[in-house]
């Protein structure tokens, strides 16, 4: 498959370039390459793959190409809890902020899902509930930022930008179980995901228990996105842009789209990470700014295109 | 080959009154029955209720070959009964071939690729439905009638013994409507039972072994076309003077608004 080969090549190239990119350039000692550069590359691979798969799944289950991993309130939930940890617990930030972020993401998703009801709620009800929870969360976060002393405020703002900066492998090991569990849940039901894409009535007639499968798929997306947010902060646009581009190139069959999205997400984040290191070298930009700068214009084009009605279903 | 039986069957949406009440009906192997009635009579809800969708409530019994439908597993039901909704959503980014192959889902694991048999069955059905030339086109870019044929093909690749079709001829031109009923006649000849809602009696009536006439969620009449398609009954149910004529030569039925002059 052409797309698969190209993505693999881009990923391999990204890993190699990443290994020689940084303040010390290609002459960095092997220890630095292995412990600092490759650890963040590994984190970029896991985070990118997880976000893109979560996006592909949500876009298919909700039958809406504008759905993102954050549609379910993931970023708002994570922002509130991680922000609270940073604000109220001196010296406890970092790992604990991440853990709190993941917990907040999962709670927000559960809240969105229960708001949307247990019945055969269509995608738009869930998306509206997600938008509402996101706005509520964003307001709470703004309130916390307003009440924060300057030093903490900076920390919260920095956390919300997302970053892959050096922390050895601890964040890789933090994210790994979430990524593995979420991916396993999704990769074993890509055919079922196709059925959801064709509508719940037809899916039911083909033997799919749509309520159960929908719950499993939403949970898996929340695990992937929530784990990623905890590890690297709410990095935006990967989950929106990657599945969308790959759907156009390789089609909507989720048996292809999901694995390709995993690869595509990894490629996007690995290369964004490289860009974040070279853009203002020897300093670096937060990864969230890079992905937003790439994703923002694309999102606008998507909106402009959807006016013709060709890009949106439901 | 199974037969489908409804006994005192009612169905509706949660929190609302029954959209169809107390329907008794038997569809035997190899029969094609028409489901008729004005807009809002409960035709679609009856078909959905028979399918047992979890977002509808139902009471009474639906039996497939004497076995309660509710006791069948999802996969058992999928291999026995196929259903074509009136307006299924278009699977985003999927082409015709992929969409038709979705009907093979009950016969494979939830992640596996299409087997040679899956491809063979879908190819044959696409040929039969005259959509083979559209195989690589995106479904979202097709016309309404073409989409209808694609969804019909995806239901036929499921190879069910009982077919419940909601307005199968919607959006189809004369030739494709004739083709549709020819396909269904062929399937009936193999023992498949068909229950199809329709407004287009003039192209479909000749193929019916029987018809069920719904109005206000209740069964007003059921029986042979000759019994059900009486001008008085049809005029009363549809609320407009209708003239119904039967062409003894072709077996076709012609329904026109207004009484014969």
Stretches of chain A where pLDDT is under 50 for at least 5 consecutive residues are 307-314
Low-confidence parts of chain B: none
Q: N-to-C SSE series of chain A?
A: HHHHHHHHHHHHH
Task: Write down the secondary-structure element order of chain B.
Answer: EEEHEEHEHHHEHEHEEHHEE
Oligomer: heterodimer
* Strands side by side in the biggest sheet of chain B: 6-7-8-3-9-10
Q: What overall geometry of chain A do the principal axes of the alpha carbons give?
A: globular
CA distance, first residue to last residue of chain A = 31 Å
Strand-helix topology:
The complex is a heterodimer of chains A (314) and B (261).
Chain A: H1 2-19, H2 30-61, H3 74-88, H4 95-115, H5 123-147, H6 150-161, H7 170-187, H8 190-197, H9 200-205, H10 210-232, H11 238-250, H12 254-278, H13 287-306
Helix pairs in contact in A: 1-12, 2-7, 2-10, 2-11, 2-12, 3-4, 3-5, 3-6, 3-10, 4-5, 4-10, 5-6, 7-10, 8-12, 11-12
Chain B: E1 4-12, E2 20-27, E3 32-36, H1 43-51, E4 57-64, E5 67-68, H2 74-80, E6 81-84, H3 96-101, H4 116-128, H5 144-156, E7 162-166, H6 174-189, E8 193-197, H7 201-204, E9 210-215, E10 218-223, H8 225-228, H9 231-238, E11 242-246, E12 253-257
Parallel strand pairs in B: 3-8, 3-9, 6-7, 7-8
Antiparallel strand pairs in B: 1-2, 1-4, 4-5, 9-10, 11-12
């Amino acid at each position: 498959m052409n797309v698969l080969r190209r993505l693999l090549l881009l990923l391999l190239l990204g890993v190699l370039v990443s290994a020689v990119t940084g303040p010390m350039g290609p002459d960095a000692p092997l220890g630095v390459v292995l412990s600092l550069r490759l650890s963040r590359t590994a984190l970029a691979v896991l985070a990118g793959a997880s976000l893109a798969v979560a996006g592909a799944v949500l876009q298919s289950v909700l039958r809406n190409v504008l759905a993102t991993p954050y549609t379910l309130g993931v970023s708002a939930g994570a922002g509130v809890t991680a922000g609270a940890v940073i604000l109220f617990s001196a010296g406890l930030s970092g790992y604990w902020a991440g853990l709190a972020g993941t917990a907040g993401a999962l709670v927000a998703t559960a809240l969105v899902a229960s708001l949307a009801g247990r019945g055969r709620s269509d995608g738009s009800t869930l998306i509206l509930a997600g938008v509402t929870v996101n706005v509520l969360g964003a307001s709470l976060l703004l309130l916390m930022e307003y009440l924060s002393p300057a030093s903490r405020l900076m920390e919260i703002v920095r956390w919300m930008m997302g970053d892959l900066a050096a922390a050895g492998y601890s964040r890789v090991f933090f994210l790994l179980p979430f990524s593995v569990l979420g991916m396993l849940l999704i990769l074993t039901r890509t055919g079922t995901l196709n059925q959801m894409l064709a509508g719940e009535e037809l899916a039911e007639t083909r033997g799919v228990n749509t309520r159960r499968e929908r719950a499993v798929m939403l949970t898996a997306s929340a695990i992937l996105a929530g784990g990623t947010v905890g590890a690297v902060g709410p990095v935006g646009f990967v989950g929106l842009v990657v599945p969308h581009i790959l759907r156009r190139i390789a089609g909507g069959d989720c048996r292809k789209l999901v694995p390709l999205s995993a690869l595509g997400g990894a490629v996007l984040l690995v290369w964004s990470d490289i860009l974040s290191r070279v853009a203002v070298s020897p300093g670096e930009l937060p990864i969230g700014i890079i992905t937003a700068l790439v994703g923002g214009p694309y999102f606008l084009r998507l909106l402009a295109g959807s006016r013709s009605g060709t890009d949106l279903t439901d | 080959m199974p037969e489908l039986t409804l006994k005192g069957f009612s169905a509706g949406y949660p929190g609302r009154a029954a959209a169809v009440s107390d329907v008794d009906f038997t569809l035997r192997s190899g029969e094609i029955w028409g489901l008729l009635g004005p807009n809002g009579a409960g035709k679609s809800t009856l078909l959905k209720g028979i399918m047992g969708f979890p977002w509808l409530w139902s009471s009474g019994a639906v039996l497939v070959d004497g076995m309660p439908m509710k006791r069948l597993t999802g996969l058992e039901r999928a291999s026995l009964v196929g259903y074509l909704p009136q307006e299924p959503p278009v699977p985003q980014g999927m082409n015709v071939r992929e969409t038709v192959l979705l009907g093979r889902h009950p016969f494979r694991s939830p992640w596996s690729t299409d087997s040679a048999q899956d491809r063979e069955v879908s190819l044959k059905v696409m040929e039969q439905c005259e959509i083979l030339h559209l195989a690589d086109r995106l479904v979202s870019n097709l016309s309404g009638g073409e989409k209808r044929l694609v969804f019909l093909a995806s239901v036929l690749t499921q190879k069910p013994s009982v077919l419940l079709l909601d307005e199968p001829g919607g959006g189809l031109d004369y030739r494709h409507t004739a083709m549709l009923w020819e396909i269904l006649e062929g399937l009936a000849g193999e023992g498949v039972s068909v229950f199809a809602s329709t407004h287009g009696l003039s192209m479909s009536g000749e193929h019916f072994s029987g018809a069920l006439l719904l109005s206000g969620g209740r069964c007003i009449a059921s029986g042979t076309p000759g019994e059900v398609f009486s001008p008085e009954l049809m005029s009363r149910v549809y609320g407009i003077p209708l003239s119904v004529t039967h062409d003894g030569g072709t077996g076709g039925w012609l329904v026109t608004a207004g009484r014969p002059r």
